[in-house]
Hints:
The complex is a heterodimer of chains A (174) and B (314). Chain A has six helices and ten strands; from the N terminus they run E-H-E-E-H-E-E-H-E-E-H-H-E-H-E-E. Chain A has helices at 13-21, 60-64, 90-94, 116-119, 126-130, 147-154; strands at residues 2-4, 32-38, 45-51, 70-72, 78-80, 101-102, 109-110, 136-137, 157-158, 171-173. In chain A, a hairpin with a 5-residue loop joins strand 4 and strand 5 (78-80). Chain B is an all-alpha fold and 314 residues long. In chain B, 67% of the residues lie in helices and 2% in strands. Chain B is built from twelve helices and one strand; from the N terminus they run βαααααααααααα. Chain B is globular. The two termini of chain B are 14 Å apart. Strand 2 (32-38) of chain A pairs antiparallel with strand 1 (2-6) of chain B, so a sheet runs across the interface.
Amino acid sequence: MVIDTLKCVGCSDCVVACQTENDVPTGYCRDWVTESVNGTYPEVDIELRSERCNHCDNAPCVRTCPTEASHIIEGGIVLVDRDLCIGCGACIESCPYDARYRHPDLGIVDKCTFCVHRVKKGQDPACVSVCPTNCMYFGDLDDSNSKVAQLLAERKYKVLAKEAGTSPNVYYLI
Amino acid sequence: MKEEVFISGRNIPHIDPHLAIWEFPISLYLFLGGLSAGILLFSAFTHLLNKDEELKGAAKWAPLIVPFALAIGLFALIIDLGNPLYSWKLYTTIRLESPMSWGAWVLLIVTPLSILWIFSDLRKLFPKLNYTKLPFLFKVEDFCLKYKKQMALALIPLTIILGIYTGILLSAFNARPLWNNAILGPLFLVSGLSTAAATIILFAKSAQERHLFSKIDVLLIVIELGLIIHLIMGYYAGNEMQVEAVKILVGGDLTTLFFGFFVALGLLLPLVLEVFELMGYKVPVVVPAILIIVSGLIFRVLMVEAGQITRILY
């Protein structure tokens, strides 16, 4: 996923779309918007970021999961198998992005799935599809013709908490 | 100046403003796990060195509490799960990368061994029991006695793994800078052994045994203090996140608890009292022993909570 911080206006539509699409319990969210303010007036720089699970290549949640509930599927999406999860919380502790939470009704751990049910049908994740400024892009980074690969080839970008060594897969254009 | 806020109003229970997923039950479990591992380790060594008769507290009395301690610990661990009824799924796979996985497996072996370990001393522990009515117990005891040496040999590596695992469980998370310190495993092991030695002092039947375990405890506390210095130095020599994280223990909200209650009242004071006792002064040994045991629990509560407050900055 590639997110253009210069186009994001912080409307939180992605958050609401996700909550509706994925039946996220009230008071919880799988994605959120962060406003990062750098500097002091008048030299101020504001960055808006829609954040979520980074679907890391070297995912610490998958590593620390004792039951193999957290796993990476073909294509790179990190998922939680609800039938295997015992809700121990090891993955929550291991996530540098605090992207996971314990489902209040089910006891299992829940998080962003990149709307895998939509992706399998060829659709974009809910957050991407509703974004009014079109600041989010979803696609296959291994395919050099894809929009996401082209954006990363052309623009300057960063990932969050690179130093955690998790090889995250959500890129922010800056 | 840099400031970051969630403008979408994120406020997830137990996640924001900082993690509180693991609470007191986990600390209690880590404490009881370390204590049990320590008692069994001392007991196994006592047996292998043929000191069962001289060191009765370590050989047969202190191990009596181990199955109960492990049972309470496991119960605490399981009620803290989101899905307690599915905890058996821990045993559908072995994942060496996940400390929780191999820790669960080690517990699965150590817990029954701790019960069999007591069975091997059944007649000595409860001489008044009417065994003619319970011939089965005889058989179990004979079986356990026959294999006691093998059990002791198995318990030594297993309990060391169990003791060290209680620390590695936390240090394996690099997302929590205060936990992500390699010394935490050895520190939890030594702290567990120290609380175990203190417990054995409480169970000791002779002055000779009390003195021996006081000496062992003095040595363990000195090692523990060294490891704590090492731990703090590790944070200061670490990256920005660790330098930031250690502020919670040094000069932050938990300073009094850490240095006051744990280091001063829980390690230095009992150390001084035990040294005085060994020098021949009259000191009620119960006092340092209980201080050590209580501070062992405080230390775990503190590390579990403090670690979850610290995070990777980005």
